[in-house]
Amino acid sequence: MTNRAFNFNAGPAALPLEVLQQAQQEFIDYAGAGMSIMEMSHRSSIFEQVNDGAQSLLRELFGIPSHYKVLFLQGGASTQFAMIPMNLLSAGKSAAFVHTGSWADKAIKEAKLIGETTIVASSEADKFNRIPSLSEIQLPEHAAYLHITSNETIEGTQYAAYPETGDVTLIADMSSDILCRPVDVSKFGMIYAGAQKNLGPSGVTIVIVREDLVAESPKSIPTMLRYDTHAKNNSLYNTPPSFSIYLVGLMLKWVKEKGGVAAMEQFNRDKTKLIYDAIDQSGGFYRGFADAGSRSLMNITFRLGSEELEKQFVKESEKQGFVGLKGHRSVGGLRASTYNAVPHESCKALVEFMADFQKRNG
Ligand SMILES: *Cc1c(COP(=O)(O)O)cnc(C)c1O
Fold first, then answer.
1. Kind and range of the H or E element at 103?
2. Which residues sit with their C-beta closer than 6 Å to ligand 1?
3. Which of 10, 16, 150, 274 suits 119 as a labelling partner, its CA being 20 to 30 A distant?
4. Is the pTM of this model over 0.85?
5. What's the total number of domains in the chain?
6. Catalytic residues
């Protein structure tokens, strides 16, 4: 019927076929309105239901306590790198970071433009192949918050457990692993994620934030960059990315139908085990990049004996219907992104291709 690729793209990434089909069905005429979601007012009651529905499904699935706000913003996770220090880093305080790789680096660079930063742990000496051990983390007394990158999409590392920060606000960039496993949201002051990896299409960024942190932003910040603007207006201060929010809602419904976030974790563990086992049992033909204890459930990074062989792997995989297996240009190698929506069959097909490629080139 439909010719679907084995899609291992890092982001934007695979969406469930069921979600795309439902969107297709409703594309021209949503709920009998005689128009597409894209054509209707964001102040209409139909869109209000879409907006509130996506919010409450996210609350339900992720177990978000009632004293947290859920915001749908624009500008990507990258805009949050600046908005966080603008809103939450006051003079005399320092933004603390765990430096885990490419995305942490971007967050740190933005915060430096706004105020003081402290790197409390880093795995740079190991080329970011692991999450630093939590016992290494010492927070400065004047820390405004601790920022972590829950999953480093490019290096393929992920926190197995989150740091305890006591009274210090913990903030996590979960752009590439939100909803891949259950999380105790109450440990965090804020969690944010661009939607295009694990939650839907590009265009909307999810911010989950404790109410007290966004009650009053500093008056000097422009309106659109203040959390209080969006918190006070239910993310409808200006025109929201309505179609993206609608698709996030469909994706959340899909997660719920699959059994929720705990079921997603099991599903992801089964999928990634297939591929990590294929790497580990290849006798060194495939070499995993991340340390065993820091391996990501979402981005599997690995290498072959030479760059030439890696190029050949990518080329041949593309001929067989695989997409997105080339590693990020900054680190090279290979990467399979196995987000929630990536089907088990794609991972099984990849493992078969890997075995066949090794047989021919090993
Ligand atoms: C993709 C990604 C980002 C950037 O997201 P944009 O929405 O493109 O700004 C930030 N952090 C992590 C961990 C990512 O994977």
1. helix 102-114
2. 11, 76-78, 103, 149, 153, 173, 175-176, 194, 197
3. 10
4. yes
5. 2
6. 103, 173, 197
